[in-house]
Amino acid sequence: MSAEIEEVKSLVIKGSAKKVAKAVQAALDAGCDPTEILNVGMVEAMSEVGALFSKNEIFVSEMLVAARAMKKGVEVLKPHLAAGSTGALGKVIIATVKNDLHDIGKNLVSMMIESAGFEVIDLGIDVPIATIIDCYHQNPDTKIIGLSALLTTTMPDLRETVDALNHEDFRRNIKIMVGGAPITQEFADEIGADGYSADAAEAAVLAKKLVGAA
Ligand code: B1M
Q1: 3 CB near ligand 1 (under 6 Å)
Q2: CA-to-CA distance for 153 and 63, rounded, in angstroms?
Q3: Terminal CA-to-CA distance of the chain, rounded, Å?
Q4: Can you tell me which atom of ligand 1 is nearest the CA of 183?
Q5: pLDDT score for 122
Q6: Which residues are CB-neighbours of 141 under 8 A, at least 6 positions away?
Q7: Cα(115) to centroid(ligand 1), Å
Q8: What is the three-state SS of the chain?
Q9: Rounded to whole angstroms, what are the CA distances from 102 to 66, 71, 89, 126?
Q10: Residue 84's pLDDT is what?
Q11: Do β-strands 195-196 and 142-148 pair in parallel, antiparallel, or remain unpaired?
Q12: pTM tops 0.85
């Protein structure tokens, strides 16, 4: 790993938001690959933060600080990862399901889907089912609804959300894709989603497949 990316990783783990933004810029200036800065410098850093939390070596507040630092880094990286979007492939509504406050992964998925050519309506975190349904009614040309869940305890919320959408008259007009660390293809099939992807890059490919554009 290059020294610049190592610096990004260490600053994300420490949660130094201001320094992370500068370190990401320095890594870009040094010619590091933006995808490597993201995956090795930031996503791996968050995995280490999660492992420290599991071992009771850090508190929730420290996870939050690391998450804020990663967001600052992603802001610097975004123009280098995502080319401008035309929105030509149609609208995607994306949300983290109710009771779940995790949004870093969902934001990366949004960014990649947008740069693949979709217009993304991001409803944020802890999103009630009714909000998603209302949003569809306001945007009846939506092609895909994407749902993220990061906790084993919100997998039932994901199931409930997909189930509710599966009972809507508009279901035949949309595809549903799901993802998040505890989600698997098997779970996605079980709850009646149309697609699952393990990461943001795969999510963009899946979205295109779901609308027949790949
Ligand atoms: Co929380 N958290 N957290 N957390 N957190 C995890 C998920 C955990 C694994 C940490 C651990 O214990 N090792 C654990 C869950 C354990 C479990 O479910 N069995 C956990 C816990 C327990 C909790 C709390 C319950 C802690 C507490 O309060 N006691 C609490 C729950 C709050 C709630 O949601 N109700 C909580 C809170 C938080 C913070 C708010 C402090 C913060 C989130 C801040 C934020 O997101 N703005 C936080 C963080 C940062 C984490 C970890 C450390 C990092 C998550 C992350 O951003 N990863 C996480 C540990 C870990 O993941 N190793 C952890 C990086 C991100 C790029 O990856 O989100 O997986 P990920 O997204 C990927 C893929 O999953 C996929 O693509 C993304 C990009 O490649 N993907 C999709 C995601 N969504 C997709 C949607 C798609 C397709 C693909 O289609 C639509």
Answers
A1: no
A2: 18
A3: 33
A4: 75
A5: 97
A6: 90, 91
A7: 23
A8: CCHHHHHHHHHHHHCCHHHHHHHHHHHHHCCCCHHHHHHHHHHHHHHHHHHHHHCCCCCHHHHHHHHHHHHHHHHHHHHHHCCCCCCCCCEEEEEEECCCCCCHHHHHHHHHHHHCCCEEEECCCCECHHHHHHHHHHCCCEEEEEEECCCHHHHHHHHHHHHHHHCCHHHHHCEEEEECCCCCHHHHHHHCCCEECCCHHHHHHHHHHHCCCC
A9: 13, 12, 27, 8
A10: 64
A11: unpaired
A12: yes
Question: Which of the residues in the chain have pLDDT under 70?
Answer: 83-85
Rounded Cα gap, residues 207 and 127, in angstroms: 21
The preferred substitution site among 13, 63, 78, 157 for testing ligand 1, maximizing ligand atoms within 8 Å of CB, is 63
Residue nearest to atom 10 of ligand 1 (CA): 50
* Residues in the chain, overall count: 214
Residue at 214: amino acid letter: A
Task: Decide whether any atom of ligand 1 lies within 6 Å of the 179 Cβ.
Answer: yes
Within 13 Å and on the Cβ side, how many CA atoms surround 119?
9
CA distance readout (Å), 177 to 7, 8, 18: 35, 31, 34
Residue among 118, 144, 146, 123 nearest 135 (CA)? 123
Instruction: Please tell me the distance from the alpha carbon of residue 95 to that of residue 100, in angstroms, as a whole number.
Output: 10
Task: Round the CA-based radius of gyration of the chain to a whole number and report it.
Answer: 17
Do 37 and 28 meet the contact criterion of CB atoms below 8 Å apart?
yes
Give the model's pLDDT for residue 115. Answer: 83
Answer yes or no: is the C-beta of 151 below 6 A from any ligand 1 atom.
yes
